[in-house]
Design goal:
alpha/beta, Rossmann fold, five-stranded parallel sheet, 12 helices, binds adenosine-5'-triphosphate, binds the ligand O=c1ccn([C@@H]2O[C@H](COP(=O)(O)O)[C@@H](O)[C@H]2O)c(=O)[nH]1
């Protein structure tokens, strides 16, 4: 019976959708042995019930912010390998939407990205919410969002009662280092239409004018965990790892 109980936290950890109120057995016990086990009345009485009762727990979100090229994506991959998080990059979701056949927002998104401007929140927030729902997971790193006041207001309207934001992981890195990293990334064949000096100047300007005030807002609210992003990626991750561990992950 202990083994059965041991499954419960994993089902909870991996199975909650955004705002989902109830879990289904087959979703969370997909293997045939587990299915047979699930049919027993013991399960429905003693185990399924607590799952349903606690399944209204909201998904948890960590916002990951920092300048272009600060290393957000690199560190998110490392976090995913070490902890139970799912990585959602707002930029990647927008690039995917831009390339999706039939997307009505394709050319708008391309224009915003190339010019380092911030896409209207209705688009980005819907992409994020759908990705969260479709993942079926409950622990998210939201990378590169919210980036301006419009993003923050839209998020608060659409998502604040559906998820719990844990903290903001802020990768602090000098402008010159950020630009250099993006240019190297572009020369390495990233294929990104904004890894060039002209776009980068605009992205840095947007970051300083629009994103920094949002980071300051979270910092004033005591929600920012600052990481020095200038050392090499493994060294940065050691600090990230410490941060997540001391935050209970
Ligand atoms: N600590 C580091 N030291 C040196 N190079 C790094 C470091 N972290 C990441 N890089 C490299 O810098 C480039 C940008 O990193 P990454 O894509 O993770 O940044 P980002 O913050 O997600 O960027 P963007 O906001 O533009 O998507 C990549 O080529 C990556 O390999
Ligand atoms: O919330 C967001 C995230 C991104 N954008 C646009 O995409 C590019 C690239 O973002 P990366 O995080 O560097 O991949 C960014 O400069 C914005 O133009 C956005 O509008 N909103």
């Amino acid at each position: 019976m202990w083994r059965a109980f041991a499954r419960v936290p994993r089902a909870l950890e991996c199975g909650l959708g955004v705002g989902q109120q109830q879990l289904t057995l087959t979703q969370h016990f997909p293997h045939s042995k587990a299915r047979n086990f699930c049919r027993t009345s013991y399960l429905s009485k003693h185990i399924l019930q607590p799952i349903i009762m606690t399944s209204s727990v909201k998904p948890k979100v960590v916002f990951v912010l920092g300048g272009p090229g600060a290393g957000k994506g690199t560190q998110c991959s490392k976090i995913v390998n070490r902890f139970l998080f799912t990585h959602l990059s707002a930029g990647d979701l927008l690039r995917e939407e831009r390339s999706r056949e039939g997307s009505e927002f394709g050319s708008l998104i391309e224009d915003y990205i190339r010019n380092g401007k911030i896409v209207p929140v209705e688009i980005t927030c819907s992409l994020l919410e759908n990705a969260m729902k479709n993942s079926g997971k409950s622990l998210f790193l939201i990378d590169g969002f919210p980036r301006n006041q419009d993003n923050l207001d839209g998020w608060n309207r659409q998502m604040s009662d559906k998820v719990d934001v844990q903290f903001v992981l802020f990768f602090d890195c000098d402008e010159e280092v950020c630009v250099k990293r993006c240019l190297i990334r572009g020369q390495g064949g990233s294929g990104r239409s904004d890894d060039n000096l002209e776009s980068l100047k605009k992205r840095i300007q947007t970051y300083n004018n629009d994103s920094m005030p949002i980071i300051k807002y979270f910092d004033d609210a005591g929600q920012v965990k600052r990481i020095d992003a200038s050392p090499d990626a493994d060294q940065v991750f050691r600090e990230v790892e410490r941060t997540f561990m001391t935050s209970g992950f």
